């Protein structure tokens, strides 16, 4: 496995360019960068971020960020595995985090749309609730999963490849669609 070298004096923008999953990893482990109360600026150095958030060992953070891809890999799950859990009747919340207009374009019947109008209700779930997040391609659901892990949820997954993979591997009747960024 190849590691990406980062230094404490690098800006967060430089780190995120080298390690796209770094922000998720920071939030999961240190509760930094995932919400407005723990945000950082792209021009802040990693040293500054650690100091501002009372993280004493910046070298530990560097080592952790260099393994950030492993953190994402642990959270991702294949669509066929999720389908197996559903078919076996496992207790879980399968949550579609796409915007309502996207869900209308290609609904996954097994997944509940995330209720953004009452998003705090999810934080009230038991911290060991099995949460499986789904989005268009697997990126947003990783972000949402990291947010929940950062809030001490212990059983969080993101569907690898999102709805696109779900359609290809589980249910070809889910309509394909494109969205503009």
Short description:
The protein is of the alpha/beta class and 181 residues long. The chain folds into two domains: 12-72, no CATH class; 78-169, 3-Layer(aba) Sandwich (Oxidized Rhodanese, domain 1), CATH 3.40.250. It is built from ten helices and five strands.
What structural keywords apply?
ScdA-like_N_sf, Oxidized Rhodanese, domain 1, alpha/beta, Rhodanese-like_dom, 181 residues, nucleotidyltransferase, transferase, nucleotidyltransferase activity
What would your notes on this structure say?
The protein has two domains: 12-72, no CATH class; 78-169, Rhodanese-like domain (Oxidized Rhodanese, domain 1), CATH 3.40.250.10. Helix 2 runs parallel beside helix 9 (139-150). The protein has helices at residues 12-18, 22-30, 46-52, 58-66, 68-75, 79-87, 100-105, 120-123, 139-150, 162-169; strands at residues 76-77, 93-96, 112-113, 131-134, 156-159. The two termini are 32 Å apart. Helix 9 (139-150) links the parallel strand 4 and strand 5 (156-159). It is α/β, with parallel strands linked by helices and 181 residues long.
């Amino acid at each position: 496995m190849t590691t990406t070298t980062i230094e404490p004096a690098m800006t967060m923008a430089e780190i995120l360019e080298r390690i796209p999953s770094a922000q998720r990893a920071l939030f999961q482990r240190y509760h930094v960068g995932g919400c407005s109360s723990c945000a950082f600026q792209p021009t802040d150095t990693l040293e500054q971020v650690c100091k501002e958030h009372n993280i004493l060992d910046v070298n530990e953070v560097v080592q952790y960020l260099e393994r950030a891809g492993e953190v994402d890999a642990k959270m991702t799950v294949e669509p066929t595995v999720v389908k197996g859990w559903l078919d076996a009747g496992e207790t879980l919340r399968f949550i579609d985090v796409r915007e309502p207009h996207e869900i209308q374009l290609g609904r996954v019947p097994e997944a509940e749309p995330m209720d953004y109008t009452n998003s705090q209700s999810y934080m009230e779930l038991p911290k060991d609730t099995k949460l499986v997040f789904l989005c268009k391609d697997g990126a947003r659901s990783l972000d949402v999963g990291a947010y929940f892990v950062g809030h001490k949820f212990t059983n969080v997954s993101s569907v690898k490849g999102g709805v696109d993979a779900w359609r290809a591997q589980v249910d070809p009747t889910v309509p394909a669609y494109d969205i503009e960024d």
